[in-house]
Amino acid sequence: MNKIKLGILGGGGDSLIGVLHRVASNMYDRYQIVGGVFNPDYEENIKFAKKIGLDTKRVYVDFDTFIEEEIKKPSEERIEVVSVLTPNFLHFPMAKKLLENGFNVICEKPLTTSYDEAVELETLQKRNKLIFAVTYTYTGYPMVRHMKHMIASDEIGEIQKIDVQYYQGWINPVIHDPEIRKNVWRLDPKKAGISSCIGDIGTHAFQMTEYLTGMEVKYILSDLNMLYDDNELDLDGTVLIRFSEKVKGVIRASQIATGEENGLTVAVYGKKGAFKWEQENPNILYHITDDQPKRIIKPGHAYVSEVAADGTKLPGGHPEGIFDAMGNIYKGVAKGLRNETAFDGEYPTMNDGVRGMLFIEKVVESHKNGNIWLSLERT
Ligand SMILES: NC(=O)c1ccc[n+]([C@@H]2O[C@H](COP(=O)([O-])OP(=O)(O)OC[C@H]3O[C@@H](n4cnc5c(N)ncnc54)[C@H](O)[C@@H]3O)[C@@H](O)[C@H]2O)c1
Asked: Rounded distance, CA 230 to CA 182, Å?
């Protein structure tokens, strides 16, 4: 089989997210990692490549050399798609140059550090007709995909309320120490962008609201907490969202929710019923109504939708998790790259990334201007 040649930028041995992408890319035997720049320190870069058993011929000293050398190769040998797994501020310059040179891209969220940069990438991507995925990982879970499918099939009726909460507590030991908090890229505006909590996890919650409902948020109002005067970026935020006058909701995100791990929880309430799902127990989807006992829906059964079945590798009762969710996103991108038939929403797109950046900017602006309602209409 002709595997897709994958390059990786960032995601070295010292990173959080690298292993998730490497495992995910291997999951359906569609990709082969052939090179990249895993670390800005060349020695570390090579050491890591050897550790994962990669031929170091295409492990480059830096990103510019990566582009320079790869474009010299005949197209059938060249890396076809590149995963950008670096801290946020490098997403834009890397993705821009990749698109300019004809590479397809799988980029971590948040897409960029500003809305304008995101729009620039979108223009380039459309012009050059390349595949661009933004890895909102949680859309890869079979039960999330099933929930989207059932909402579209009118299982819960017209939507009337959406509540997405994303609570973590990891930043506590960082934020309460004045020295440590100065040295974390997620709290440095030059590296993270204008937001920490909303940019890092609030954006997942926002994307989930639009992904599940198929609707766009029209207005937001936010209230953020930076906790210390010398800390510029938000650590916690509550955002009211309005899809319309009759469909409203709330996004609650926090990195200072003491004791919480990766607590993403989703609830979508319709006129006839509701779906509830938790990232920490991803193989259980609750369907609740006013007049029936609570139903539990699980992957690996004949009753689930085709899209959920397609993203499940083992029979029911064999728990699959976050690696599998990212694996499903990589599978969706592979289908896109090979022009194969795919289900709706098999990988989050450039539009998700651009809307994510608009959301982050407006949330910060709303808070700064005294918690005012702002439009999320694209200009
Ligand atoms: N989708 C998700 O659920 C999810 C989860 C965690 C992180 N992320 C995103 O992934 C990105 C990386 O986050 P992380 O937590 O892995 O960060 P990290 O700090 O743990 O790792 C960053 C990696 O990038 C490398 N790097 C830095 N500068 C580089 C350069 N110039 N060239 C090549 N490599 C370079 C570092 O050496 C390191 O290996 C962020 O944008 C973050 O928002 C997404």
From this structure: 9
- Centre of ligand 1 from the C-alpha of residue 85, in Å: 5
> Does the CB atom of residue 130 touch ligand 1 within 6 A?
no
Residue 163 is encoded by which pair of tokens?
A: 């509540």
pTM of the model: 0.97
Cβ proximity of 160 and 247 under 8 Å: yes
Pairing of strands 274-278, 132-134: unpaired
Q: Please, which residues bridge with residue 107 across strands?
A: 84, 134
Tracing tokens 């936010």 back to the chain, one arrives at 222
**Cα 92 to ligand 1 centre (Å):** 13
Pairing of strands 285-288, 274-278: antiparallel
SS3 call for 160? strand
Atom 5 in ligand 1: which residue has the minimum CA distance? 17
The pLDDT tens digits of the residues spanning 307-362 come to: 999 999 999 999 999 999 999 999 999 999 999 999 999 999 999 999 999 999 99
Question: Is the beta carbon of 196 within 6 A of some atom in ligand 1?
Answer: no
Averaged pLDDT score across all residues of the chain: 97
Angstrom distances, CA of residue 111 to CA of 86, 114, 118, 154: 11, 8, 7, 32
Asked if residues 193 and 182 have their Cβ atoms less than 8 Å apart, the reply is no
For ligand 1, whether the C-beta of 14 sits within 6 Å is yes
Q: Going from the N-terminus, what domains does the chain have, and what CATH number goes with each?
A: 4-137 (3.40.50.720), 141-308+348-368 (3.30.360.10)
Ligand 1 nearest atom to the CA of residue 204, by list position: 3
